[in-house]
Amino acid sequence: MAQLTVRQPQNDRDHAEVRALCRAYRAVLAERWSDHPQFLHRYYNSDTFEDLLTRLPELHKAPEGAIFVADLEGQVVGCGMTHRVADGVCEIKRVYVSEAARGHGAARAICEVAMAQARRDGYRRMVLDTTTRLHEAIGLYESLGFDPIAPFYDPPDDFAENLLFFGRDL
């Protein structure tokens, strides 16, 4: 069985891999939501997306957040990150595993490590959002004990019906 570990990025190469994974995630969303281009424009605007990617280490820095990478046999194959959204509550987002690495439990491992770190950082609850077309993600989150919740932000009226919100106590 291949060796899988989850860790925080250690160098510029790791951060470059995280940015590449986020671009791949955006491409999956573009494919699955090709009939709703306003979704991609709103959440992953091509004009601002690269700036967002360069700011990820700042946006998800300790102690209010973290970035995690899944390392499979020395290759970064997945990522996920957390950040504070309210007192005692963090959000997990951008959980993505490369297609070639799926089936090794990397997404589950990222989520489990992120939950453990969030508990150590003093968070009592973790929330997330996903889209109705990311069936694999929905199944993963439900299997990890996340339950449907009310939105923790105001979703856009023209896309709200396509978003799902989940949460769980840590």
Question: How is the topology of this model organized?
Answer:
Blueprint lengths: L3 E4 L4 H21 L4 H7 L2 H14 L5 E8 L2 E12 L2 E9 L8 H15 L4 E7 L3 H9 L3 E2 L14 E7 L1
Parallel strand pairs: 4-5
Antiparallel strand pairs: 1-2, 2-3, 3-4, 5-7, 6-7
Question: Any overview of this molecule?
Answer:
With 170 residues, the protein is α+β, with helices and mostly antiparallel strands. The chain has a domain at 4-121: Aminopeptidase (3-Layer(aba) Sandwich), CATH 3.40.630.30. 39% of the residues lie in helices and 29% in strands. The chain has helices spanning 12-32, 37-43, 46-59, 106-120, 135-143; strands spanning 4-7, 65-72, 75-86, 89-97, 125-131, 147-148, 163-169. Strands 1-2-3-4-5-7-6 form a seven-stranded mixed β-sheet, sandwiched between helices. Strand 3 (75-86) and strand 4 form a beta hairpin. It starts with a strand and ends with a strand. The mean pLDDT is 94.
Number of E strands:
7
Spatial extent as radius of gyration = 15 Å
Main pleated-sheet profile: 7 strands, mixed
Instruction: Give, in spatial order, the strands making up the sheet with the most strands.
Output: 1-2-3-4-5-7-6
Q: Short summary of the structure?
A:
The chain has helices spanning 12-32, 37-43, 46-59, 106-120, 135-143, and strands at 4-7, 65-72, 75-86, 89-97, 125-131, 147-148, 163-169.
